Amino acid sequence: MKYIAAITLTCLIFIGGLWVGSTITNSKINDILSVEQESRLQLENLQLEEELLKDTPCKNPRLLSESLEDLGTKLTYLETQYSKGDQRILDLKKPYTLLEIRHYLALKSMTEKCDKDYTIILFFYSNDPANIKESEEQGFVLDYLRKKYDNVKAYSIDADMDLGIIGVLKDKYGVSIIPSLVIDDKVYAGFHEKEELEQVIENK
User: Which CATH class is domain 117-204?
Assistant: First the structure.
């Protein structure tokens, strides 16, 4: 009887573990799908906001900037839950990247026409194993700079993404090394420490 009871208890623990694991997995999947759906809706909202801002080219696009940053955070979260190469993530990153580039061009134009003091950074990174470590480290440095300087606007571009405009930008600035930064149209190839970039920002 003790032997049977032990087997029964073991089976119950095993089944219970499967049930808990299944519950956690389903909850995780539902959470990810919810973020994915919200991200798609927010992309549509960002496009509408951008259209409205065309009528006021010298207005500070704070709302659009905050929305882009918020959406970028959500996409980063999804990458940690799926994988950086998951097709669902890439499908979301493409329209997001196009919005980033359009926002970059609008802000660059506003800075030139409306006497705005922004330091605008294009960050070309890669998730390729050969470049991902330095790319992630450079990303951490840029996060620090964005928090320290209110006038720093950075746009992260996946250099390997299959979008024609990314190739155009890389050709325009002569980007051949990953990671690379384009700061106010000047290229800084390879990884750069925060102290060096602080000097670039403060001495412009």
Answer: alpha beta
